[in-house]
Amino acid sequence: MSRLKNMVKRWLSAWAPQLRYRVPAYSSEGEDLILKRIFHGKEKGTYVDVGAHHPFRFSNTYLFYQMKWRGINIDPMPGTQALFNRYRPEDINLEMGVSLQKQQLTYSIFNEPALNTFSADKVAEYTQEAQYKVIEKVKIDTWPLSVILDEYLQAGQSIDFLTIDAEGLDMEVLRSNNWHKYRPAYVLVESQPFELERMDASELYNFMQQQGYCLFAKTYYTYFFRNMTHHDDAR
């Protein structure tokens, strides 16, 4: 037993520096760490997560939930609401999709839940790879983002950041918002990479610019847009 204890002590001693300086992150590309830097010093805030996927796996908001921020999580996957209610009980958790109008859409569920989508084009793209397949299709209620915010966001509450990962329908989610009424300080959108030198050719970039947002930062897939009328970094 003493030999085992000594081995454990040596292991802990070897890894202690790495463990001590490890930075917790839950996003797939470190988006939450960029947001943490943006909102450094802000003790309380509000987020909206469209395509929230999971309470903490690939989550851009879970780090902020741990920091006592609160918000709205929206995902159409059956069973998601119960999972979020268990691990994120102080958030508003909604099991629905987002589209330009209230309707029911066919939702394709993959063996990799991160790929679940309403988009037939995305289904065709993802199933090109043999390891991914659709295991179920279900009809899901979808609402415009503006209607969801009208219903569930507290009156007068500002949004510090909106994060969108809608697997091919990100533009539809963006178009379904009322940009005159709901203007998050920052908007994160997952989209295909494009060369920064050719931003004018990007539908996403042009749309956000028309809404009064500028490209502020990016990871490989995620673009951060900043409200150009917002001057104090929401602090």
Task: Jot down its keywords.
globular, 235 residues, 7-stranded mixed beta sheet, Rossmann fold
What can you see in these coordinates?
One of its GO terms (biological process) is endosomal transport. Residues 49-213 form the Methyltransferase FkbM domain. GO terms for molecular function: methyltransferase activity. Keywords: Methyltransferase, Transferase. This is FkbM family methyltransferase. The protein has helices at residues 2-20, 31-38, 62-66, 80-87, 120-126, 145-152, 170-175, 203-210; strands at 46-50, 70-74, 92-94, 97-98, 103-110, 134-143, 161-164, 186-190, 213-218, 222-227. The chain is built from eight helices and ten strands. It has a domain at 60-102 and 145-227: 3-Layer(aba) Sandwich (Rossmann fold). The strands form two sheets. It has a seven-stranded mixed sheet with strand order 3-2-1-7-8-10-9, sandwiched between helices. A three-stranded mixed sheet has the order 4-6-5. A hairpin with a 3-residue loop joins β9 (213-218) and β10 (222-227). The radius of gyration is 20 Å and the shape is globular. The N and C termini lie far apart (53 Å). It is α/β, with parallel strands linked by helices. The model has no long low-confidence stretch (mean pLDDT 89).
